[in-house]
Amino acid sequence: MTNGNLKIPTVALGTWAWGDSGEVGTGYFGSSLTQVGLEEIADRAHTAGFSLWDTAVVYGAGRSENVLGEILKRLARSDYQLSTKFTPQAAGIGAYPVAEMLEQSLARLGTDYIDLYWIHNPADVPRWTPHLIPLLKSGKVKHVGVSNHNLSEIELANRILGEAGFRVEAVQNHYSLLYRSAERAGILNYCRKQDIPFFAYMVLEQGALSGGYGPENPLPAGSNRAETYNGMLPQLKALTDKLALIGQMQGAAAPDVATAWAIAKGATPIVGVTKPHHVDGLVRAGRITLSPDEIAELEGLADAAEVDTRGWWEQRM
Ligand SMILES: NC(=O)c1ccc[n+]([C@@H]2O[C@H](COP(=O)([O-])OP(=O)(O)OC[C@H]3O[C@@H](n4cnc5c(N)ncnc54)[C@H](OP(=O)(O)O)[C@@H]3O)[C@@H](O)[C@H]2O)c1
Q: Which InterPro entries does the protein's record reference (predicted)?
């Protein structure tokens, strides 16, 4: 039982950074964001056919959803798909915490349905998964997925939904050249076999793989991502140089190649776009072909960097 088809684009758009205040150096990302810039991102994305927008209640404590809802008012609701999440750690104490959190997301996003609704993490799979069923039945949620779940948790969620005639329709985990745990734990393989789209988040490692940052030009001081990644930038140079070199040969740039790598591995990357030209990079990424040798070389350089980019919110897979 599904509520129509979920359209899976080559790349989905992430808006965690949109939850920051927009001031340089503040918040998780510390990037400068402007209303005009975000509007141009939405327009370019629409023109390029990137229609799936990912957010979560906890990105900037509702701010990302608010900002995204405002920006997308310029488009018809049928022109885009919304993906947002129930975060167990932020659950209220009412009888229906998932339905209540969904209502808040709907209000902030200015809509009456969510195309793809996620359980953000596997805090308690048997407890939270069944709450998705009445939301699917009501039509307020069209499709459901699980994020940050390991293989046995994904299978458990699938069994719980299956008993009600539904299924896990998407999986979303951290997956990048530097962090391939989903592949090593057999999650990509499982998704392929079950025909479940696998969404890869942080394919650019929050900008550390964009090639735009390095020891001389670190991530914005004061931001959380700077704390995580700035110390690793020297080890990442050989990899980002190679990404840039492969890109040059196809009229593309380093981040486009990092994104193309995830596509080549069968994933749908969710890329956090903060500037209009990032959308052009996603268009290029969709056109890049990587040979098996190039993929092996990139993965070899990534392994040689010997960095652990597991997020503080992630369990080991
Ligand atoms: N389910 C989960 O637990 C979870 C966790 C993390 C993320 N996510 C989702 O996945 C999305 C992506 O992750 P993320 O935003 O954390 O990190 P990301 O996509 O790896 O990196 C985003 C950063 O990379 C830079 N960038 C993006 N596109 C670029 C391009 N074409 N060229 C150069 N630089 C580019 C931007 O930095 P500058 O602003 O410095 O240019 C941007 O802030 C999130 O927005 C969120 O929707 C989900």
A: AKR, AKR_Detox_Biosynth, NAD(P)_OxRdtase_dom_sf, NADP_OxRdtase_dom
Q: Which of 59, 274, 279, 309 to mutate to test the pocket of ligand 1 (most atoms within 8 A of CB)?
A: 274
Return the closest-CA partner of residue 176 out of 267, 57, 114, 106.
Answer: 267
Query: How many other CB atoms are there within 10 angstroms of residue 127's CB atom?
Result: 12
Positive or negative: CA dihedral 295, 300, 301, 305: positive
Q: Which residue has 């999650």 as its token pair?
A: 187
pTM: 0.97
CA angle 200, 214, 59 (to 5 degrees): 40
Q: What structural domains and CATH numbers belong to the chain? A: 12-305 (3.20.20.100)
Beta carbon of 22 within 6 Å of any ligand 1 atom: no
- Mean pLDDT of all residues in 163-181: 98
Cα(204) to centroid(ligand 1), Å: 6
